[in-house]
């Protein structure tokens, strides 16, 4: 994967120049100055401390190398997180703390306009949409914020984040059209009223950068003035900003993540953004057609269940390197070097201030390659695995005059803790690490773990360590001419994920052992640690002088001093206790769709009689507008009822409709099913709009009935799902687009009904127009006592909508963070019903022939405590899916949870789900306090 288009253009524009103040605006200086006031670049030095709402005004500037915070260089290591994809504000803190622990110093935040605005002029920034709370939480977790409010954000969100009501208004988004700009300005002003209070420049928050949506350069000046008028004075980023903004999209594995991020590093980029750091859930009607499942980004390093994945190690290592080794904030291309094997490509960089050299070594071949690479005057033999990359350094200062001559492993951090200098290096398990140090005085090395070996040769200290799986090796280096001791730490990927540097106001700390370190506080002689454990693990702490006592999550830990000058816990920290989830039983069922009956009262429905539309879809000649958006129905399922006059002789009806991915249409005539039509299943995520015509021939009985009653007015009832909008062509029609008849030319009076008023708590994208949704069948507290008791799976068939409800209770200990999922699988087997983890059960099985049976081509909408968790699609592509149930919406502390599932099925498909079970996705002893998310029941 190469640099993004923006990154390539920005890097070229940066060469030999400084960034003009107009380009970013506000507090960005036209030329960054050293503290002395002399012309020239700011020298490399200690990075700024962790940010916070400290009440002090800060100056944010930028030169051609990096951001400058109060005159100090900062390498931005940002990860993207969408708060709207985690509808539990308590868990925002959990994810932000994890991001910070794993090396991120910034969070990039996109805001979805459609989450906040159910109608023109209406805005809601409360509950799960509380931007002020998120920005406060980011400051409390000491994370910078890059704010990206759009209006257009993409991100596989319905209409790219534009609100549904905008699809039916005059004007075109992302253009200078005044009709659109009026709405866009209003949105930005509402966001800016919150964001301005949290700007780092004012010392009232940590909003550091503001990324704007300005695809046309002509609009940039106007937008710049608009934002400045709203009080936004942090730098603005946009498509033409001459700054190297390196954004990495999805990567397949850890090796590809290393290649891409090291390529950015090799090209001098110091503003890094990972898209995405936390994947999250496209719950409700949030996903665009390009999002095939509710799981937004399965490749994210922190997955939907808030667990680190196998791609975390390289990101953690690079993030800690950029945070703790300031040399990488000012790197210039250095003398070209070549490897002895042409399959290895080398990019050589140097810091002119410190003399540190970096070598990004990349292997794009399909085999491991061992080659010699000139580094610091020595040909060093290194091995780079197939389609992987490595970073090596020379001349890196390790404290007390000691310097890295070269190493065959990557530096991860170099820091001072009290009178200790600590340097950590990382590589792959099974490799031999070779570190060579230049020491100004004769070193006195001591191996503290058996696998290490060392030798002093011609004034250089050679340290050799075979890297073991999840093993940390320590070597102590002293000298008679210095009172500072160097501790060398060598780790493989797994062990590196147990190394946690932390900066406190009283000094730096390094912790090794637990699964996560959330927070550190120094209190007199006590260091108070907060974090998570999964399994029993050791605890080792390097802390400033005078620290003699340790607590872990509030409990005292017995420790003793080690030869590595650390505090070692006498006993392992405990892991998470075993958790058992209940089976889901006690199901109750009720069928709906009374709208298909000829006598159903639709007098309260909107009359579909408009003749013009702002949609980009043409209105058929001689027909009314049937597009759902034109009548205010933007999300979920939509019902149509057409009363026909003059239908005698009618033989067939053709219904043209337009949907997002996995659309479906069902039709009835006077309550009798005509049939079901489904959009094509190929390449679900590759199209923004799906169009088709469903042709239905009337049954013989229906034709005879119409002939016997020539004056009758039969009712054609049509249910269409789903109304998700394309990210780009957001004004394409959704719902019915035209209707044609054969055998007769009846006049039709159409009425349309979609979702009821937006849920004031759950927001406008939570529910659609099904009868059960309009009447609260999905809500907790709804009385389903009269429903039919049933067991799952179901095999009966009917065209229409069938609802299933049950309740369950969890009893998770208060000091345990359990991540729970709900598995839907139409394979119809019963394994895993006890709720135990069953990874094979969630994997597609080629040996299960019932996977491809069309009689399971149904749609299921899942609701937990009234919150729409997303859609499951059965049938040929219906792989099992695990819906992650976020704590807060999920009640885990001995409280009842209501689960409701709405199944839409044609007469050729079963009308019920297959296996439905809870699954433990992960657990940790620790976590954050979780406040229940408001989940109201039916209005009385």
Provide the structure class: mainly beta
Please state roughly what percent of the residues sit in beta strands, choosing from under 5%, 5-15%, 15-25%, 25-35%, 35-45% or over 45%. 25-35%
> Which segments are poorly predicted (pLDDT under 50) over 5 or more consecutive residues?
1-38, 828-852
Main beta sheet, described? 7 strands, parallel
> How far is the first residue's CA from the last residue's CA?
56 Å
Computed Rg: 31 Å
- How much helicity do the residues have? 10-25%
Shape: elongated
Mean pLDDT: 91
Major sheet strand order: 8-7-6-5-4-10-9
Helices, by number, come to 12
**Strand tally, please?**
53
Walk me through what this model shows.
The strands form 12 sheets. Strands 8-7-6-5-4-10-9 form a 7-stranded parallel β-sheet. With 940 residues, it is mainly beta. 12% of the residues lie in helices and 34% in strands. Helix 3 packs parallel to helix 5 (131-140) and helix 8 (254-266) runs parallel beside helix 9 (312-324). A hairpin with a 2-residue loop joins strand 29 (516-523) and strand 30 (526-532). The protein has 12 helices and 53 strands. The protein starts with a helix and ends in a 15-residue tail after the last strand.
Record keyword descriptors for this entry:
940 residues; mainly beta; 12 helices; 53 strands
How would you sum up this structure in a few lines?
Residues 32-42 have a biased composition (Low complexity). 12% of the residues lie in helices and 34% in strands.
Q: How are the secondary structure elements laid out?
A:
Blueprint: H1 5-14, H2 21-24, E1 60-62, E2 67-69, E3 72-74, E4 76-81, H3 89-101, E5 106-110, H4 113-116, H5 131-140, E6 144-148, H6 178-195, E7 207-211, H7 218-229, E8 236-237, E9 245-248, H8 254-266, E10 271-274, H9 312-324, E11 332-333, E12 344-350, E13 357-363, E14 369-375, E15 378-384, E16 388-394, E17 396-399, E18 402-407, E19 410-417, E20 420-427, E21 432-438, E22 443-447, E23 453-457, E24 460-466, E25 472-479, E26 482-492, H10 493-496, E27 499-504, E28 507-512, E29 516-523, E30 526-532, E31 540-542, E32 549-552, E33 555-557, E34 559-561, E35 567-569, E36 588-591, E37 606-607, E38 638-645, E39 652-659, E40 664-669, E41 672-678, E42 690-697, H11 700-708, E43 715-721, E44 735-742, E45 747-753, H12 771-774, E46 788-789, E47 800-811, E48 816-825, E49 859-864, E50 867-873, E51 881-885, E52 893-905, E53 915-925
Parallel strand pairs: 4-5, 4-10, 5-6, 6-7, 7-8, 9-10, 20-26, 30-32
Antiparallel strand pairs: 1-2, 2-3, 11-12, 12-13, 13-16, 14-15, 17-18, 18-21, 19-20, 21-24, 22-25, 23-24, 25-26, 27-28, 28-31, 29-30, 31-35, 32-33, 34-35, 36-46, 36-47, 37-45, 38-43, 38-45, 39-42, 39-44, 40-41, 40-43, 47-52, 48-51, 48-53, 49-50, 49-52
Helix pairs in contact: 3-5, 8-9
InterPro entries: Betagal_dom2, Betagal_dom2_sf, BetaGal_dom3, BetaGal_dom3_sf, BetaGal_jelly_roll_dom, Galactose-bd-like_sf, GH, Gly_Hdrlase_35_cat
Protein name: beta-galactosidase
Region (Disordered): 32-54, 820-857
